[in-house]
Write a structure and sequence with these properties.
The protein is of the alpha+beta class and 750 residues long. Helix content is 17%, strand content 31%. It is built from 14 helices and 45 strands. Strands 8, 9, 10, 11, 13, 14, 16, 17, 21, 22 and 33 form an eleven-stranded antiparallel β-sheet that branches. It has an eight-stranded parallel β-sheet with strand order 34-32-31-29-25-24-23-35. α11 runs parallel beside α13. The chain is globular. The relative contact order is 0.08. The N terminus is likely disordered.
């Protein structure tokens, strides 16, 4: 590593004394791979250069400072920024190869003793840097948020892509356009962000990588913000634990990693995976420890139906009989309260205890298992129990001590409050309800909606640190352990959660990954789903879920009758059949358990081609569980086919119910492909043709990482295999796919 110091001539004689600790007018240092430079007056980052290709990720210096400290209400100022400091110094420690940037001399209203020190270190043999911040002398002011580091003015590139681990993972090539110079994307971790990283890159070119090495799953936020002239910045917000160690000093309990790479989203996933799989949440995941109930792994396909048992269990039994595969049920609207209105007044079931138990018991006797819906953090603010139990005391509060209502139901506009996972009251309330559902009604498990999410709470009566910290995850760990303990005498309960999250791997058996069908609920053209989380953690968790449906959405009969559609669950036009196949294919090639929403037995006759396609993939998956359930995802092969337009319906439980059907065109790949390696080292290529046109493929396998092989076995849905020779020297796999066909090509070792 080398340090480059630019100093006035009058200081040259003292250079020998300043090698270890120096004050400079400007400083830049590098490790031969990455170069960083800082402004001599402000400490602003002026260069972040990948020395391998010469690309500098910093454009013209922006007015944004390297850090910002937001203070809790009651402080003399709302925030402290670098420009508030009267003095700035830069010090280097050559032995430890780090740079310290120090701001001091702040005005008296924020504390005369205040100093802010940013510690920046370069890795020895990688284009990565590690950043920490220390804040001392805050006196009585308490930091609500420490925004550090803030990297503003990132140099734009052609074909630029932003990748975020929003649950399964999403990417966009329109970040600068969507932010429009002033907008802001912000996500919390642990929560909507399933992993502690992001990437911004030119496809197979220079890439900017940001991550944290926090093994304590502390609350934090990642943000991407717009600047004038299509500028773009990235910010990490640390949320201190106030009220525990005092506010006079805050030191980052983990490093923020900023670095450079060349490649794409999968390259970023590999970078993160090299660290992530060494952490306790991966090694102690319920899959790794063998704690998951066996029926879950044997599930061939899920039905996601809603309502009373005759509309849920009956279709499941019909599908199981026809498919000859184990079918499991993902069951909403079983509860006695209206959806997204009456939580947590779930009991008794809307059809009554006896009828529910009887129907479920008969289905279980035939091998069908059921998870029932119970939101794990919402309480309806219009319910009787909200008032009777004084639930507001235990709801999440903002820094001003207020509850923020959340409205999901577009028909009733009923507000719900998020309950604090850090309170014994809420955990006991929820665990008691789960106990009644499992032990009293006989359900096989609980779908804990919004489980992979967390919030910062500032209520001092709850007994947890104010704002940030790890108390939310600690509370969830205690909640799931309590549920499992209460129900252990009855059954080995399965707990599922919404979304993906590394922090929840040791606690959830199953994760709902709906982004395979995000076109049904998301803004068109903004973000594209990718299996980012799966590329890191597949084989350490089980993923399922799909909005993929052949009908209009259902309507809860406990909602207002005046807003009900004329024909709920009306069959969609065949125009959208390719969308259905695309959603099923994504789940298949990305290693999820298949799911069909709103299934009726009549669809065997009304939509035989679509149902046959879904079952074909489900059967084929059962032939390849070592890859698609336990395997490691490899870089997906390039098919060489151009995207083609297909018709998309934007429909979900709320979207499209009270307005004309939203329809648009989207360019999508006609053939989906993925690559996998099973634990014994054998690799497989998974292919699905979602169109009604046969396809001939020539797949280059050089970049997939499948390794050298010359023997190829093609697996079909019935388990049959056809052997052929693969020419390893060319690195090309030729494959012919019939219309709406799929296969798995196993590349065995010689």
């Amino acid at each position: 590593m080398t340090f480059h110091i630019r100093m006035p001539v009058r200081f040259v004689a003292a250079l020998a004394l300043l090698l270890f600790c120096f004050q400079a007018y400007a400083a830049e240092f590098d490790n031969g791979l990455l170069l960083l430079s800082f402004d001599d007056n402000t400490g602003q980052l002026t260069a972040f250069k990948d020395l391998r290709n010469g690309h500098d990720f910093t454009g013209a210096p922006a007015a944004e400072g390297l850090w910002k400290i937001d203070l809790l209400p009651g402080a003399a100022k709302q925030a402290i920024v670098p420009s508030d400091a009267k003095s700035f110094a830069c010090h280097a420690n050559a032995d430890e190869k780090v740079l310290n940037l120090v701001w001091s001399g702040f005005s008296g209203d924020v504390g005369e003793r205040l100093t802010v020190t940013a510690n920046v270190a370069l890795d020895k043999d990688a284009p990565m840097s590690r950043w920490r911040i220390v804040i001392e002398g805050l006196d009585k002011a308490e930091p609500a948020a420490v925004r550090f580091p803030r990297i503003a003015g990132i140099t734009p590139q052609e074909n630029e892509t932003l990748v975020m681990p929003v649950w399964m993972g999403e990417r966009t090539s329109r970040a600068r356009e969507l932010l429009d110079g002033k907008g802001r994307f912000e996500w919390e971790y642990p929560g909507l962000l399933s992993m502690q990283c992001l990437a911004l890159y030119r496809e197979n070119g220079p890439g900017f990588y940001a991550a944290c090495d926090d093994i304590g799953t502390r609350a934090k936020r990642f943000a991407v913000f717009g600047l004038p002239d299509r500028g773009l910045g990235i910010e990490l917000t640390q949320l201190p634990e106030n009220g525990t160690d005092g506010a006079a000093r805050y030191e980052s309990p983990y490093s923020v990693i900023l670095g450079a790479f060349e490649g794409d989203w999968f390259t970023a996933a590999e970078q993160y995976r090299s660290w992530a799989l060494q952490q306790s949440w991966a090694k102690q995941s319920r899959m790794d420890t063998g704690a998951v109930n066996g029926w879950l792994g044997r599930t061939g396909i899920w039905i996601w139906n809603r309502g009373r048992s005759d509309g849920v269990l009956g279709p499941a039994l019909a599908l199981q009989e026809r498919s000859q595969m184990p079918v499991s049920v993902f069951w909403h609207w079983w509860h006695g309260c209206p959806y997204d209105v009456g939580f947590p007044e779930y009991l008794p079931p809307r059809e009554g205890n006896d009828a529910f138990r009887k129907a479920l018991g008969e289905a279980q006797a035939k091998g069908v298992h059921a998870l029932v819906y119970m939101n794990q953090r919402l309480w309806g603010m219009t319910t009787k129990s909200w008032t009777d139990e004084n639930a507001e005391r235990f709801a999440v509060k903002d820094p001003a001590g207020k509850v923020h209502p959340e409205v999901y139901n577009t028909f009733t506009k009923s507000p719900c409050a998020s309950m604090c996972m850090g309170t014994d009251f809420w955990r006991n309330k929820y665990a008691g309800l789960a106990e009644q559902a499992v032990n009293g009604l006989g359900v096989d498990g609980i779908y804990m909606d919004q489980a992979c999410s967390s919030l910062a709470c500032y209520d001092p009566t709850h007994g947890h640190p104010l704002g940030g910290g790890s108390y939310w995850m600690g509370g969830f760990q205690r909640l799931q352990a309590d549920i499992r303990e209460r129900t252990s005498a009855s059954r080995q309960v399965v707990l599922a959660g919404e979304g993906c999250g590394e922090a929840w791997l040791p606690y959830l058996d199953l994760m709902l990954s709906l982004q395979v069908s995000m076109e049904r609920y998301a803004q068109p053209g903004a973000w594209e789903p990718i299996p980012f989380f799966h590329a890191v953690y597949h084989g350490h968790g089980t993923f399922y879920g799909n909005y993929s449906s052949l009908t209009m959405p259902p309507y809860d009969d406990l909602w207002p009758a005046e807003t009900a559609p004329k024909e709920p669950m009306k069959l969609l036009d065949r125009t959208f059949s390719v969308q259905f196949r695309l959603e099923q294919a994504r789940a298949f090639v990305w290693g999820q358990q298949p799911t069909i929403a709103n299934f009726r037995p009549s669809q065997f006759d009304d939509r035989p081609e679509e149902i046959a396609f879904a079952l074909r993939l489900a059967r084929l998956r059962m032939q390849a569980l070592p890859y698609l359930q336990q395997g490691i995802m490899l870089r997906p092969p390039v098919t060489g086919l151009s995207d083609e337009p297909l018709d998309i319906s934007r429909l979900s439980i709320y979207a499209g119910q009270q307005e004309p059907l939203k329809q648009y065109e989207k360019n999508c790949p006609p053939v989906l492909a993925s690559a996998w390696r099973e634990p014994d080292g054998t690799a497989a290529i998974v292919l699905v043709n979602v169109t009604d046109t046969p396809r001939n493929l020539a797949l280059k396998l050089d970049d997939t990482g499948v390794g050298a092989t010359s023997r190829l076995s093609v697996v079909k849905e019935d388990g049959s295999r056809s052997d052929c020779r693969f020419q390893a020297e060319t690195g090309v796999l030729a494959a012919d796919l019939a219309a709406e066909d799929a296969c798995i090509c196993i590349l065995a070792k010689d």
